[in-house]
Design brief:
Keywords: Cell membrane, Copper, Membrane, Metal-binding, Signal, Transmembrane, Transmembrane helix. It is found in: Cell membrane. By secondary structure, the chain is an alpha+beta fold. It folds into three domains: 3-25 and 148-416, Formate dehydrogenase/DMSO reductase fold; 31-132, Immunoglobulin-like, CATH 2.60.40.1220; 428-542, Domain of unknown function DUF4426 (Immunoglobulin-like), CATH 2.60.40.3340. It has helices at 3-19, 153-181, 188-221, 225-235, 237-255, 260-275, 286-316, 318-350, 361-388, 392-416, and strands spanning 31-35, 41-42, 48-53, 63-67, 80-81, 87-91, 98-107, 113-122, 428-432, 438-444, 449-459, 468-475, 484-486, 489-490, 503-514, 518-527, 533-542. Helix 2 (153-181) packs antiparallel against helix 6 (260-275) and helix 2 packs across helix 10. The longest helix has 34 residues, at 188-221.
Length: 543
């Protein structure tokens, strides 16, 4: 093993040891509660809109707006954020009867924009005058789990820019490391050529970063305009990271190629800047997640930059390529091991339940990436075997295959690093129609902890009030746990809903009756005045 490979392995093992004790913690902003809730039909107008998220938000760039059915903004007042920076609140003037549209835009701790729109009604049903309620231009919901659901030209540009930036970052920084490691012992002509190519990669990296930044700015700003641009870059951590990355790309034309130490410092800062714009910045413990991400990028750069350099030399300077191959082969193997270990540790931090891998696009793409990396390991072993057997033609073909696998891996990473690792909880709205009875059960926001539980029953008026309405929660992951009885109580329901020519009876309660994540069976039992009991069951998943 070369001194370079040994030093690389020792450094990365030490850093991985530091991060191994990191505990998992949820992150990535998503809306967990809206008051009033989406689809609410209220008798009295609300005094304010309160949106609560599952993690700390950026305090510099956000908005919450309410429009009436004529597309008029009901107040010019700005929304405020609570001291914990987990909720956005907008005080409202007195609202009249009608349908209202709520739209919001926030930036999560990992620098990703989260926005959405929903409706509520005051003094009427949402179905009344619905035709005049149109969504104002530019309002939509973004940052979901599916990468290609309803993909627009802007989405395609974002994915392309991320892939190009990620590829340019890895190849350029890796090339820089290998230029210092291998170029110093190469003939002058080879060293000069590698330096010229490094400068080409450097230019591509700057262009890719500018494209990456330009493609994502509209989503970060939302409808904030020029004022939002200033706020983004002066008052948010995400903005600081964007500017820092751009300055690093520009400073590379001044800093690089002067000394090995300066080149290494620049590359390390470039990897850190990338980490500040990803999931690692949104999870706790942040020090460990950022360090793991930095290690992951460093190992990927050693592999990607070395492979591209080796492939180019194989085509043009075969003897120099043969000098590089055994050094690269050892370093690539160590890098892939570091990639595997750091990736596994990161996954355990991101996911409180490893089964979530199969339940999100992020997890499924992670499995695809893992399969590609496994194929790379096999290909690398075959390259080493062919080289030792002096089979240049076979080794060349395998190098080309390795490059294809690397390109595919970078493409997958460019997509899945922008998806949400954690599956999102959606409120339960469960309605069952029957011949003599209808039932609706609602759990909102359907998260571990405090929730609002509502049961509504429609019965023929001649039967009168139900004799009993029972709501139970059965843990399917812990069958030894007795069912949890949710003590719903009658309340005066002000919402407007179809009566189905029957009398409606409504029950609700708020409390921590859904204590933890997992699979649950919701059971509703309704007994009418004639002692006829109807039982309903539905399975839910809480993340």
């Amino acid at each position: 093993m070369s001194r370079f490979a040994a030093l690389l392995l020792l450094t990365m093992v030490m850093l991985l040891t530091v991060t191994a004790g990191a505990a998992p913690a949820a992150a990535h902003a998503s809306l967990v509660e809206a008051v009033p809730a989406a689809g609410s039909e209220l008798k009295a107008a609300p005094e304010r809109i309160t949106l609560t998220f599952n993690e700390r938000l950026e305090n510099g760039l956000f908005y919450l707006r309410v429009y009436d059915s004529a597309k008029r903004q009901v107040t010019d007042a700005a929304a405020v954020m609570n001291p914990e920076q987990t909720a956005v609140i907008l005080e409202l003037p007195a609202l009249g009867q009608g349908n209202y549209l709520v739209t919001y835009h926030v930036i999560s701790a990992d620098g990703h924009p989260v926005e959405g729109t929903y409706l509520f009604a005051v003094g009427q049903s949402l179905s009344e005058d619905a035709g005049s309620q149109e969504m104002p231009a530019g309002m939509h919901h973004s940052h979901g789990d599916e990468p290609f659901g309803g993909t627009s030209a802007g989405d395609v540009l974002q994915f392309v820019s991320r892939i190009l930036y990620y590829a340019a970052l890895l190849v350029f920084t890796g090339w820089l490391l290998w230029y210092r490691r291998f170029g110093g012992t190469a003939p002058d002509e080879t060293r000069t050529r590698l330096r010229r190519l490094a400068e080409k990669w450097q230019q591509l990296y700057l262009i890719a970063y500018i494209l990456f930044m330009w493609a994502h700015l509209p989503d970060l700003l939302g409808d904030s305009g020029a004022a939002g641009l200033v706020t983004l870059f002066t008052k948010t951590a995400a903005g600081y990271a964007w500017i820092g990355g751009l300055l690093l790309a520009l400073l590379s034309f001044i800093m690089l190629y002067r000394s090995t130490a300066l080149d290494l410092v620049w590359a390390a800062l470039a990897w850190l800047a990338k980490g500040m714009l990803g999931h690692a910045a949104g999870f706790e413990p942040k020090t460990q997640t950022l360090l793991l991400d930095w290690l992951h990028l460093a190992a990927a750069a050693v592999w990607a930059g070395g492979l591209v350099m080796l492939l180019l030399l194989w085509k043009t300077e075969r003897e120099q390529a043969k000098r590089l191959l055994p050094i690269f082969s050892t370093a690539a193997l160590l890098s892939l091991l570091v990639l595997t270990v750091s990736g596994v540790l990161t996954t355990f931090i991101f996911l409180p339940d490893i089964r979530y891998i199969l339940e999100t696009s992020w997890g499924r793409l992670l499995l695809v990436k893992s399969a590609l990396v496994a194929a790379v390991m096999v290909t690398g072993a075959l390259i080493r075997f062919s080289y030792r057997r002096l089979r240049d033609r076979t080794a060349g073909r395998l190098l080309a295959l390795d490059a294809i696998l690397m390109t595919a891996t970078i493409g997958v990473v460019g997509v899945f690093t922008y998806l949400t690792p954690l599956p999102a909880n959606e409120p339960l709205h469960w309605h069952v129609m029957g011949e003599k009875i209808h039932m609706t059960a609602q759990i909102s926001p359907k998260v571990p902890g405090v929730n609002d539980f509502t049961v509504k029953v429609w019965l023929p008026e001649k039967l009168g009030k139900p004799k009993d309405v029972i709501l139970k929660l059965h843990s399917l992951d812990g069958p030894e746990i007795a069912p949890i009885v949710v003590p719903v109580e009658p309340f005066d329901d002000a919402s407007f809903e179809d009566s189905y020519d029957m009398k409606r009876y409504s029950y609700r309660v708020r409390g921590a009756y859904l204590p933890y994540a997992g699979r649950w069976r919701v059971e509703v039992r309704v007994m009418d005045s004639e002692d006829n009991e109807t039982v309903y069951n539905s399975e839910i998943r809480v993340y």
